[in-house]
Amino acid sequence: MYSELVMEHFRNPRNMGVIEEADGVGEVGNPTCGDMMRITIKVKDDVLEDVKFQTLGCGAAVATSSMVTEMAKGKTLDEALEISNKGVAESLGGLPPNKMHCSNLAADGLHAAIEDYLEKQTAKA
Amino acid sequence: MENVIYMDHAATTPTDPEVLKAMEPWFDVQYGNPATLYSLGLLASQVVEESRSAVADVLGADPAEIYFTSGGTESNNWAIKGVADAHQKKGRHLITSTIEHHAILEPLEFLEKRGYEVTRVPVDGAGLVDPDAVRRAIRPDTILISIMHANNEVGTIEPIAEIGAVAREAGVLFHTDAVQSVAKIPVKVADLNVDILSLSAHKFYGPKGVGALYLAKRVRVTPLLHGGAQERRRRAGTLNVPGIVGLAKAIHKTADQMEAEAARESALRDRLWEGLRERIPHIYLNGHPTQRLPNALNFRVEGIEGEAMILCLDMNRVGVSSGSACTTGSLEPSHVLLAMGIAAEHAHGSIRMTLGRANTQEDIDYVIDTFPGIVARLREMSPVYNK
């Protein structure tokens, strides 16, 4: 059902966990749907210095979360905002059709974390 | 697929080697069509009738009341649509439960679109149907009650004899989907007060693609398949002779071993549940604690999702199913668990382990050793489990 790359990310997820005193936190999905993810980020000079995830969900939800953290790390905020759910799925070699909609939220989670960071910055200013 | 620990016997079972052997000659040596009149055909016709008697014997029915079908789905479709069509002059109301298999629920929805009415009786937290609720749902225009014998997801065994008594008292036909219960627990049509009963061979170590419908002599049904004169003109189509031979062999052998095997599997099942419960916090049984199929275990694991558990168990060579819909391609979690009042997030985190003949104590202990680590890892990954 899943590509070998999806299974590899599911078996060995990258950047799993929570950043203490994160600069931004993004949460998407909800447990009622069976998929939920929390992304925490550390930002320095407009660059994503660290990105971590926690995910409740199926194999696709875990793999996309893991992949998005890999794609985002080291990127500028503007570059990271360009990452799309579709792009994450493509980087994983595709997902089964029924997973494209329900379990492919990782880029949304990343964007939510960046927006949270930007709002905090605006509040400080 | 070496050394796989298979714990999904509610999905299907391996065909018993003896069954396979009994089927073999009917493919290529004695391949006659039982509807023909020369020796090759007569031999086939004879073995079909012997098989019919064997099935009737296990169910306590008359051989003339057994009809061979292509499996549980056809049997259920035929029972629902066949009775609905034949009795529409009496009425167009049917009664079922909220936890039936899709092979019951979908034909009923099909009928609703054509002007029939369906009452779905709810279940309690253990998945039990209340016979009194069925009684209250009966109307003058009720033509059929269909309640499953044992649920395929949680294994809860319904009070079929009591519901059958209610149906009989009201003069309404009663069908039970016994696909999960036949040859696992006693299924005698007279004891259960049923008029119509569905079964499927691959659930009891027979081949896939063959099943049967018990139709009491007095029951009128319209055929589902029209064509040749097979099965007393009620089910057209050349008989699946090897499949029928396999079904008969499998039901007989499995029913003969039933009592001992049920005791063995329920002891293993209880050992499994006790072992997991001791080692994993915040897991809860789904289904009835005692009134349950001897091989069935379904439980919810707080804070994680079913498919992730299945994938992790699969990496450890253990095959199970989940209550999560992710596996079936819809967003909704199991309708059975939801009907039992289990919250959607817990239904997503439910898992089903159904044991069978090949499972040993070593298998059970392996799962007890392996599964807690999987749960701990997935909970560590989960944003909603903070205990």
In DSSP terms (H or I, runs of 4 or more residues), the helix count of chain B works out at 15
Q: State the CATH topology of the largest domain in chain B.
A: Aspartate Aminotransferase, domain 2
What structural class do helix, strand and pairing data of chain B support?
alpha/beta
Unreliable stretches covering 5 or more consecutive residues of chain A: none
Number of domains of chain A: 1
Question: What CATH architecture of the largest domain in chain B do you see?
Answer: 3-Layer(aba) Sandwich
The percentage of residues in β strands of chain B lies in: 5-15%
Could you name the key traits of this structure?
heterodimer; A: 125 residues; alpha+beta; Sufe protein. Chain: A; three-stranded antiparallel sheet; 6 helices; 3 strands; B: 387 residues; alpha/beta; Aspartate Aminotransferase, domain 1; Aspartate Aminotransferase, domain 2; 2 domains; seven-stranded mixed sheet; four-stranded antiparallel sheet; 15 helices; 13 strands
Commentary on this structure:
The complex is a heterodimer of chains A (125) and B (387). Chain A has 125 residues and is of the alpha+beta class. Chain A has a single domain, classed as Sufe protein. Chain: A (Alpha-Beta Complex), CATH 3.90.1010.10. Chain A contains six helices and three strands, in the order H-E-E-E-H-H-H-H-H. Chain A has helices spanning 4-11, 59-72, 77-81, 85-91, 97-102, 106-124, and strands at 24-30, 35-44, 47-56. Chain A has a three-stranded antiparallel β-sheet. In chain A, a hairpin with a 2-residue loop joins strand 2 (35-44) and strand 3. In chain A, helix 2 crosses helix 4. The longest helix of chain A is centred in the C-terminal third of the chain and has 19 residues, at 106-124. The mean pLDDT of chain B is 96. With 387 residues, chain B is α/β, with parallel strands linked by helices. Chain B has a seven-stranded mixed β-sheet with strand order 2-8-7-6-5-3-4, sandwiched between helices. In chain B, strands 9-10-13-12 form a four-stranded antiparallel β-sheet. In chain B, strands 1-11 form a two-stranded parallel ribbon. Chain B contains 15 helices and 13 strands. Chain B folds into two domains: 5-12 and 257-381, Aspartate Aminotransferase, domain 1, CATH 3.90.1150; 17-253, Type I PLP-dependent aspartate aminotransferase-like (Major domain) (Aspartate Aminotransferase, domain 2), CATH 3.40.640.10. In chain B, helix 7 links the parallel strand 5 and strand 6. Chain B is globular and about 70 Å long. The chains are: A alpha+beta (125), B alpha/beta (387).
